[in-house]
Design a protein that fits this description.
Layout (H helix, E strand, L loop, with lengths): L2 E4 L2 E4 L4 E7 L8 E7 L5 E7 L5 E3 L7 E5 L5 E6 L8 E8 L15 E2 L3 E6 L1
Parallel strand pairs: 2-11
Antiparallel strand pairs: 1-3, 3-8, 4-5, 4-9, 5-6, 7-8, 9-10, 9-11
């Protein structure tokens, strides 16, 4: 399973970014998909996950501001990030798991498949 993130960058507080996660020739339908982030000087934090029925789970820290979604072809995962805050600054990773046993945001840091990450920097 190969995942490639894109869409990171620098933005001012209150701004928006949309991250994309491209997959390599397989459908998202068969996996629990998610995003986690590596905060500077801190550990990993689960951000959001999505099941095959498109039901989603979010960390409390991003609920109401971030939205996880996928395209109609179910080959690309997105993370729309609005109302960004400086504390959202992190490297964001796309992740996948073949099982749905732990398909919640807090478990996304332990998914067996992840990409190389994309940097998001939010300035105040």
């Amino acid at each position: 399973v190969q995942l490639m993130e894109s869409g990171g960058g620098s933005v001012q507080a209150g701004g928006s970014l949309r991250l994309s996660c491209a997959t390599s020739g397989y459908t998202l339908r068969n996996y629990c998909m998610g995003w986690f982030r590596q905060l500077p000087g801190k550990g990993r934090e689960g951000v959001a996950t999505m099941r095959s029925d498109s039901s989603a789970s979010y960390a409390d820290s991003v609920k109401g501001r971030f939205t996880i979604s996928k395209d109609s072809a179910e080959s690309t995962l997105y993370l729309q990030m609005n109302s960004l805050k400086p504390e959202d600054t992190a490297t964001y990773y796309c992740a996948a798991d073949k099982t749905y046993s732990f398909c919640t945001a807090d478990h996304s840091t332990g998914f067996p498949y992840s990409g190389q990450g994309t940097q998001v920097t939010v300035s105040s």
